[in-house]
Each structure stands twice: as C-alpha cells, then as structure tokens.
Amino acid sequence: MRSSLHESLKTLRLSGLAAALDVRLIEARGNHLEHEEFLELLLADELAVRSSRLVERRVRAAMFREVKSLDEFDFSFNTSIKRKQVFDLATCKFVRDKADVLLLGPPGVGKSFLAQAIGHAAIKCGMVVLYRSIFDLARDFMNEETLGDESNKMLARYLKPDLLVIDDMGMKQLPRRSGEYLLEIIMRRHENRSTLMTSNRPLEDWAKLIGDVPSATAILDRFLQHATIVSITGKSYRLRNRSAKAEPEGRRNTAGGEGLSPPEDTEPVTALSSDGKASSVPAT
C-alpha cells in the first residue's frame, strides 16, 4: 500500500479498511472483481471493525461483573431452567417491547450468569445495557444524596439504557432509602425501558428487605405488570464441579459406614398461580 494512501485512510479513520486493503487488492486481481464488488468488500470490512469496537465499548460501559455467554451455560445441570425460554429472552424481544424480566430462585442456581449473558446478547443486538447489583445501585445514589445536579445525572444514567440489569436482590437487607431510589427508577422506566432483576428471596419478603412497605408494594405493582418471571430451582450451579469431585469420596465414606448427605436447598421459591398471586413452594 502506498504511504500516501495509508495516511489518507488514517486521516479518515478508516482503520478497518486500511487493515484489509492489501488482502482485498490481491483478491481483486486474482478474481478479476468488478470495481463495485471490490468497494463493497472494503466497506464491509470497515463496518465489521466498527461494529466489533462498538460492542467492546458497550460491554465495558455495561460494567458486567463478568462477561458471560449463553453458549457457556450448562443447561443439562439444571433441568428446571427452560433452555428455549432463556434463548427467547436472549433475542431481546422483551427489550423492544419495553417489558421486564425477573429471575427468581435460591442462591447459586445461575441467575447472575443468565442475567449477564442476556445483557451481553442485548449489546450484540445493538442495545445499550447497564449492569448493577442492588447494592451498587444503593451506593451510587447514597453518594449523591445531596439531590443536586449530580443526583439528576445519576438518575439519568439509570434511565438511559435500553436494558437495566439489577442483580442480587434479596442477598441482605438494603440500606436506608434504597426503596425510594429503586422505586423512582422502576417508575420512570415502567413501559419506557426494560429492566431485568434477579432475586433469591420470595416476593413477599421484598418489603422486609427494602424496609419500606409502600415502596416495595409500588415497585412490585409496576415491575410485575409486564414481567416474565423465570422461577429456577435446584442445587448450586457454582458448586457443580466440586460436587462431581466429591462424589467418589462420598461413596467411599458410605461404604465405610459414614455416609455423607448432600446439601439441600431449603429456601422457598416463589411461584405464581394463573391469577398472578405469589405463593411459596419448597425448592426441589
């Protein structure tokens, strides 16, 4: 490539085109490409590079705890997770419909993994995503409790994304005024933007966790109106490999008269009846 041409492409910020130009020139000569075909290939190379960089920037801006993909998730480990339902959510139709999603189940069953994987899929669909744990959310607003201009900027940060992922609801009781912050976010995003939340506690416990019964009631009233609820039961996804390694040892101990009982999930999981009422059922 001529140095003058390289400088021109650099000035125009066509780095993808510049990187592929030498290969495309060889291809054009060898295959006798028409000028239009040659130009189309170069533009496709540039667009591919820009698209990839845009995804990378949005992934960084989303602030995922970990970047996850559904291809990495072991659906065979927990049959209570409906593969088709999860992949339907990953198409992000619910985001385009401005609907919401709640992943509900005991700790360790893969809720955070799935939430981040769906968020990553949304970015690949061209959407803006923000991932925060409920504790990150509370800290963000508590740091701007002066309610001045900075607080408005913080609220705008939570209102702008096409998809807001709020993780870890129910891990422990939330700090004071957290219910107010969460309520305003849910109210302002309701039917305008999509929100995905994860929780390991039944819906009837949210008032206690938030410490504000009216706020919890209003949050659930709006959030559940257009929400898809995915109830997950079963053993810990995180400990699946440890369980497999421990199995031979457990069998040896059983043979020696010292049987080991595997841990059970005893925390209740909320299920919704056809009329939309929440009830607690034991995890299996």
Report on the structure:
It is elongated, with a radius of gyration of 25 Å. The C terminus is likely disordered. The termini are far apart. It folds into two domains: 49 residues; 184 residues, 3-Layer(aba) Sandwich (Rossmann fold). Helix 2 packs antiparallel against helix 3 and helix 4 runs parallel beside helix 6. It is an alpha/beta fold. A hairpin with a 5-residue loop joins strand 6 and strand 7. Strands 2-3-4-1-5 form a five-stranded parallel β-sheet.
Short summary of the structure?
With 284 residues, this protein is α/β, with parallel strands linked by helices. It contains twelve helices and seven strands. The chain folds into two domains: 14-62; 70-235 and 264-281, Rossmann fold (3-Layer(aba) Sandwich).
Q: What proportion strand? A: 5-15%
Level-2 CATH architecture of the largest domain: 3-Layer(aba) Sandwich
Which geometry do the CA atoms define?
A: elongated
| Number of spatially distinct domains | 2
Strand segment count: 7
The helix/strand series, from N terminus to C terminus, equals: HHHHHEHEHHEHEHHEHEE
Characterize the biggest β-sheet: 5 strands, parallel
